[in-house]
User: Which sequence fits this backbone?
């Protein structure tokens, strides 16, 4: 059985394809999914889907870097994070690829999310792009402040960086999640990183509706496609596809307290 640890459901709900997505996921053996937040609207949808699909969809709530220079209600976010249906804070983090000029504001917002994760002892779902040093610096402070269960600090989602960054993330106690990018033709450096991630720190995701893996490139990504990422990881590790379903699923259950 597979768990897709990172799904954005909003587009599927809006265009009426959500029921088909659920059926496709079930047929593929993807029986549990984590609905990612990141904005007031995404947080509300994540919680609602978790309520409507208990045991199958699990909620997250956070304020992502896109809100760094916009007004945002931290009291509202705190209420979401306190809800038992919300299993993690996120996604949140830093992205300097497009908006490096808002780095200071992004770091402030990221810290506010991390503080809620510490307060409620819920893991954080981290986005990081072209912001390695600042991401590690803030996560180090977070790791030092963490007083929750060991192994539940969070996950660096959709990992795309190098071994050095992976080691820094792992040293802080976080997990690493691979998306369909690991199947792309130009992803040889990323495939090298796979060898350095211990079995008990590995997650898989689709980041739906983005990043459809080979051989589904060109399609809108959906949770059923996580099986293709698992097959590629199994090939890289020389293991069975079953292990690349069950191990990350076990890790996801532990991380998110499913």
Assistant:
């Amino acid at each position: 059985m597979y768990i897709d640890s990172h799904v954005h459901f909003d587009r599927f709900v809006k265009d009426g394809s959500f029921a088909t997505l659920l059926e496709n996921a079930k047929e593929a053996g993807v029986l549990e999914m984590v609905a990612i937040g990141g904005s007031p609207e995404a947080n509300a949808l994540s919680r609602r889907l978790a309520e409507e699909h208990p045991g199958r969809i699990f909620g997250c709530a956070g304020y992502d870097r896109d809100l760094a220079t916009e007004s945002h209600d931290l009291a509202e976010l705190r209420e979401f994070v306190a809800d038992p249906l919300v299993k993690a804070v996120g996604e949140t983090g830093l992205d300097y690829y497009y908006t490096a000029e808002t780095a200071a504001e992004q770091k402030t917002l990221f810290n506010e999310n991390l503080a809620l994760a510490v307060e409620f002892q819920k893991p954080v779902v981290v986005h990081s792009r072209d912001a390695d040093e600042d991401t590690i610096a803030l996560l180090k402070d977070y790791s030092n402040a963490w007083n929750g269960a060991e192994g539940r600090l969070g996950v660096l989602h959709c990992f795309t960086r190098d071994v050095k960054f992976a080691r820094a993330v792992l040293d802080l106690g976080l997990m690493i999640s691979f998306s369909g990018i690991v199947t792309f033709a130009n992803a040889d450096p990323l495939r090298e990183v796979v060898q350095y991630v211990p079995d008990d720190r590995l997650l898989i995701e689709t980041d739906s509706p983005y990043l459809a893996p080979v051989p589904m490139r060109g399609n809108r990504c959906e949770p059923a496609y996580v099986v293709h990422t698992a097959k590629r990881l199994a090939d890289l590790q020389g293991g069975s596809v079953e292990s690349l379903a069950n191990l990350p699923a076990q890790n996801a259950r532990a991380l998110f307290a499913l």
Q: What stands out?
A: The chain has eleven helices and eight strands.
